[in-house]
Each structure stands twice: as structure tokens, then as C-alpha cells.
Recover the amino acids of this structure.
């Protein structure tokens, strides 16, 4: 079977290609959002002929067979996606999902309703017959009667779905797949990591951080995760925090500039129109005086080169106009993410040996390179990917210079991005992913 991938951004081209596919046959792979947008029956952004092509190829009469992957996305009949899918006149329908029955009985109804309408009756009837009895028997304090009813209702539901639902586990593919071996390794921390770990637990764990009123588990976990990866990851996080704070300060300064610019537009010495009351003239004069005061404060702030800003009012937390004139709040330059800096030297930051995880990874890389194996490294953290890429570059530089660096664990080898290794993350474009 010949497959072709098309990327059309113009609706005219999309309509032409869909019409060609509808007439000549084949398989059309389409995302849910794209299908919903193209199949809108009363959309005003499509021309009449184009709308007719979309409706004919996708809805009426539509394709001969519809296969919906990730079918649990059709979890609510009231959503625009479910309504768009239900308008398709194709009767041969397949829904693929990895969501088991016991996860969400309400979502299960929508999937079955799409494949075989009215098999489970009306939605309220389905709730009373199956959802409520099965749910009532799953609580820890459910009575024996509730548990017996739950088992009976579950059995009846499975029997009703025998002709419409096929359940398959990994055993179907097991004969065709090579055996998989999984190893979970527990790696000890280095002395530097232990020092950082203990210091954090004693001084920051379960305590307020960055303006929080109480300690939280997830911030603690993320900080500890950076520690047990490598101290350089802590620096990455501090640098990112400083960049975000600088952007915030720049934004506040822009807002301040826009406030101070009022003095350029208002002249309290100008002659007012006869229709303007004295009260309005006084108001305008007050605004001009206030603006001039703000402008003077701004100029003195720039001359002193001190980082300060004026508190800005919001609807939820208004600030009185007089308070703005009287107070100038200094910006705190403290970076709460730099708590680690007194504990780690510059030499230790760039030392691979301060992470046993990195040492192990690069040993695996060396052995895979020696026998020609391909290696896939997963990580939940972009910092970890930056870290690995950083030390790959360090090893490559040392190799090109013909030296062995003990801070790199003595590793050598050429690691050129795009040649010897590839990085794939959320910033990778679709075109580069398919290379």
C-alpha cells in the first residue's frame, strides 16, 4: 500500500484533496479537531461549493468505514466533537481505546452509543440500570447487598456488550515481539548531592517558598529531583527564574512608562471650552499634576539606577491614587532558587562525577557505541536533556582537543548534534520529527 502525507493550509486545497480521496478511495488520516472544523454544516467561512465537498466526503454519505482512535475523547454527547462525529452517516464504525470499562462508565456509554446506537438504551436508563448500582458497590463501606448487585449488573453489562466490544491485551502481540527485560537500578548520591539534599531538607522542606503561605509536596519533590540529577540542573533552574523575573520587571516598567506618558497629552494651562465645567477642569489639572509627579519619580529612579517600581492597582486589589504618589516600593532581587550556591563551587558544577546517574549513563553510551547499538533515553525534564547535551558537548570538545578530562570521568568520543545523537522534545517541528 502506498502512503502519502499531505500538509495543506488552504481550505481550497483541502477540499480538492478530500474530494479526490472520496472518489478514488484510500485511507484518509485526519485529526479530531480538523474533522470537526471541516465538517461544520453551517460554517460561513467556506464557500458553497467547498462546503458541499466537505459534507459529501466526510459526512453525507461520508467514508465507507470510520475508525476512531483514542475513542474515549468522545466522552460526552453534548460536546461539539461528539455531535460532529454522530452526524456521519457511515454505519461501519470502529472505536479504539485503551481505557478499561471500570474507569468511567459514563464515557463508556458515549463510545458504545457511537458504535452501536441505542444498544444500552437512553442515557438516564443506562444510569439507573448500570452506572448507579455498579458505583454503589465499589465503596469501602458498601453493604454486602450493594456488592452483590454490583457484580450482577457488571455481569449483565458485559454480556450485553459481547457482540459489540472486543477486548485484547498485550498477549495478542506477545508472540510477535522480542522479549523485554526491565531493570530498575537504585543509584546512590554523591557527597555533593548528599550535602545539598540534607541542607534542603533541614532548611526548606515543608516551608514557605517564593511567597507561598505553606509548604507543598510538589515544589519539594521538584527541588530534590534537581539535586539527585546533577548540581548543574539547579543552576539551570536559577537562570530560568532570573530570566522570568527580568521579563516581569521589564513588563512592569513598560506599564509604568505608559502611565507616565499622560503628562505628554494633558496641558493644565490650556483654555477649556465653554461647555466644560470648573469641576472637570480641576479633575484634569489633578490628573496632570499626578502624572507630572509620577514622571519626576520615574526620572529620579532612572538617575539613581535603583530597581524600584510603583504598586499597580487591580480590580481585586485597588490602590489609592494618593498612595501611588507617596510610595515607591523597591523590587527585591533575591532569587529563592539560589539557595544552593554557597554549597557548590564552580568546579563542582561542571564535574560529571558529581552525579552517579550521569556516570552510569555515559558508561552505557560508551558500550552501546562500541557494539553499534542504538540507545533511546527518556526523561520527564527538559533540564535533564539540557544536562545530557551539555556533557556530550564537553566530551566531544575534549576528544577533538586530544585530551582526557578527569572531570568527565575520562570519557572520550565524538558527539555532534544531528549526526551522532538527536534530541526530540516539544520544540521539535513536525518536519524534523519525520526525518
Amino acid at each position: 500500500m502506498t502512503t502519502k502525507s499531505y500538509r495543506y493550509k488552504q481550505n481550497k486545497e483541502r477540499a480538492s484533496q478530500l474530494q479526490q480521496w472520496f472518489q478514488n478511495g484510500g485511507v484518509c488520516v485526519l485529526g479530531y479537531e480538523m474533522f470537526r472544523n471541516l465538517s461544520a454544516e453551517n460554517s460561513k467561512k467556506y464557500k458553497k461549493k467547498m462546503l458541499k465537498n466537505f459534507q459529501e466526503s466526510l459526512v453525507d454519505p461520508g467514508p465507507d468505514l470510520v475508525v476512531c482512535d483514542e475513542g474515549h475523547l468522545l466522552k460526552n454527547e453534548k460536546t461539539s466533537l461528539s455531535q460532529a462525529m454522530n452526524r456521519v452517516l457511515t454505519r461501519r464504525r470502529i472505536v479504539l481505546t485503551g481505557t478499561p470499562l471500570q474507569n468511567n462508565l459514563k464515557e463508556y456509554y458515549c463510545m458504545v452509543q457511537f458504535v452501536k446506537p441505542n444498544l444500552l438504551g437512553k442515557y438516564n436508563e443506562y444510569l439507573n440500570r448500570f452506572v448507579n448500582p455498579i458505583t454503589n458497590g465499589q465503596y469501602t463501606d458498601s453493604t454486602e447487598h450493594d456488592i452483590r448487585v454490583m457484580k450482577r449488573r457488571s455481569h449483565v453489562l458485559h454480556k450485553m456488550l459481547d457482540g459489540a466490544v472486543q477486548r485484547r491485551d498485550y498477549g495478542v502481540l506477545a508472540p510477535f515481539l522480542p522479549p523485554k527485560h526491565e531493570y530498575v537500578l537504585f543509584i546512590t548520591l554523591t557527597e555533593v548531592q548528599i550535602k545539598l539534599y540534607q541542607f534542603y531538607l533541614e532548611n526548606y522542606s515543608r516551608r514557605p517558598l517564593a511567597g507561598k503561605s505553606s509548604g507543598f509536596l510538589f515544589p519539594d519533590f521538584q527541588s530534590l529531583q534537581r539535586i539527585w540529577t546533577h548540581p548543574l540542573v539547579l543552576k539551570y533552574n536559577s537562570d530560568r527564574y532570573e530570566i522570568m523575573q527580568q521579563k516581569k520587571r521589564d513588563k512592569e516598567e513598560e506599564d509604568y512608562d505608559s502611565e507616565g506618558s499622560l503628562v505628554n497629552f494633558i496641558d493644565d494651562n490650556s483654555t477649556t471650552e465653554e461647555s466644560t465645567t470648573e469641576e472637570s477642569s480641576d479633575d484634569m489639572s489633578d490628573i496632570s499634576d499626578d502624572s507630572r509627579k509620577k514622571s519626576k519619580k520615574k526620572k529620579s529612579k532612572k538617575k539613581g539606577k535603583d530597581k524600584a517600581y510603583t504598586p499597580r492597582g487591580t480590580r481585586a486589589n485597588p490602590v489609592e491614587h494618593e498612595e501611588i504618589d507617596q510610595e515607591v516600593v523597591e523590587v527585591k532581587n533575591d532569587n529563592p532558587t539560589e539557595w544552593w550556591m554557597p554549597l557548590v563551587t564552580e568546579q563542582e558544577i561542571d564535574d560529571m562525577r558529581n552525579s552517579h546517574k550521569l556516570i552510569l549513563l555515559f558508561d552505557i553510551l560508551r558500550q552501546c557505541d562500541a557494539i553499534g547499538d542504538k540507545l533511546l533515553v527518556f526523561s520527564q525534564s527538559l533540564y535533564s536533556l539540557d544536562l545530557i547535551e551539555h556533557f556530550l558537548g564537553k566530551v566531544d570538545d575534549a576528544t577533538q582537543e586530544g585530551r582526557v578530562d578527569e572531570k568527565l570521568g575520562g570519557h572520550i568520543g565524538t558527539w555532534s548534534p544531528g549526526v551522532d545523537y538527536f534530541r526530540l522534545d516539544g520544540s521539535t517541528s513536525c518536519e524534523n520529527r519525520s526525518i
